């Protein structure tokens, strides 16, 4: 399966909204990524042109910040915390369940672009350790059964939208 097609009108409308704004590169990149789930490599040159930058400067910002991606991600991006509190409370086993259930390693996306599995140095929810995020939703005090149930719910949600 291929990643979704890039709607060039949305891309160029987004770029125009930020054109020539001082300090506008990061908000522009965030908005492009919000629309498409990643920053399409073919967007770098027009973004650079609109911001009066070299493409290498735009590329440098994208690759510097871990929140930006140049590759398509799944509809559901799962981030498992690897921070100290989560590690002590068993995040390694949570990640293991994720890998087994999704048949993915860290940084990979399912062929149907439904799930992407990532890890984070810290999700900032230490009191809920071990934690994970699915898109912008936090899940805490995880156990392997809770992870399996949560994944099944997202799997069902994805199938409902398709069918």
- What portion of residues belong to β-strands? 5-15%
Contiguous uncertain segments of 5+ residues: none
Structural class based on helices, strands and sheet pairing: alpha+beta
Distance between the termini: 17 Å
Compressed to H and E, one letter per element, the order equals HHHHEHHEEEH
Strand order of the largest sheet: 2-1-3-4
Q: What is the helical fraction, as a range of percent?
A: 40-55%
Largest sheet: 4 strands, mixed
Shape: globular
Q: What value does the average pLDDT take?
A: 91
Count of separate DSSP helical elements: 7
Quick structural summary:
With 163 residues, this protein is an alpha+beta fold. It contains seven helices and four strands; from the N terminus they run ααααβααβββα. Helix content is 47%, strand content 11%.
Set out the fold topology.
Blueprint (H helix, E strand, L loop, with lengths): L7 H11 L6 H12 L7 H8 L3 H10 L11 E6 L2 H5 L2 H12 L12 E6 L11 E3 L2 E3 L4 H19 L1
Parallel strand pairs: 1-2
Antiparallel strand pairs: 1-3, 3-4
Report on this structure.
This protein is of the alpha+beta class and 163 residues long. Helices cover 47% and strands 11% of the residues. It is built from 7 helices and 4 strands. The chain has helices spanning 8-18, 25-36, 44-51, 55-64, 84-88, 91-102, 144-162, and strands at residues 76-81, 115-120, 132-134, 137-139. The chain has a 4-stranded mixed beta sheet, covered by helices on one side. A hairpin with a 2-residue loop joins β3 and β4 (137-139). The radius of gyration is 18 Å and the shape is globular. The protein starts with 7 loop residues before the first helix and ends with a helix. The model has no long low-confidence stretch (mean pLDDT 91).
């Amino acid at each position: 399966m291929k990643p979704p097609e890039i709607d060039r009108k949305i891309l160029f409308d987004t770029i125009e909204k930020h054109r020539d704004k001082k300090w506008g590169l990061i908000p522009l990149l965030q908005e492009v990524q919000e629309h498409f789930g990643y920053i399409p490599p073919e967007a770098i040159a027009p973004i650079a042109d609109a911001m009066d930058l070299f493409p290498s400067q735009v590329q440098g910002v994208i690759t510097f910040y871990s929140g930006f991606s140049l590759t398509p991600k799944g509809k559901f991006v799962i981030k498992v915390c690897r921070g100290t509190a989560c590690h002590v409370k068993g995040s390694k086993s949570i990640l293991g369940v994720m890998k087994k259930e999704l048949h993915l390693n860290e940084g990979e996306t399912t062929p149907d672009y439904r799930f992407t599995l990532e890890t984070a140095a810290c999700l900032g929810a230490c009191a809920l350790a071990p934690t994970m995020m699915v898109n912008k939703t936090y899940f805490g005090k995880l156990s392997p059964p809770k992870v399996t149930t949560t994944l099944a719910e997202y799997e069902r949600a994805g199938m409902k939208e398709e069918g």
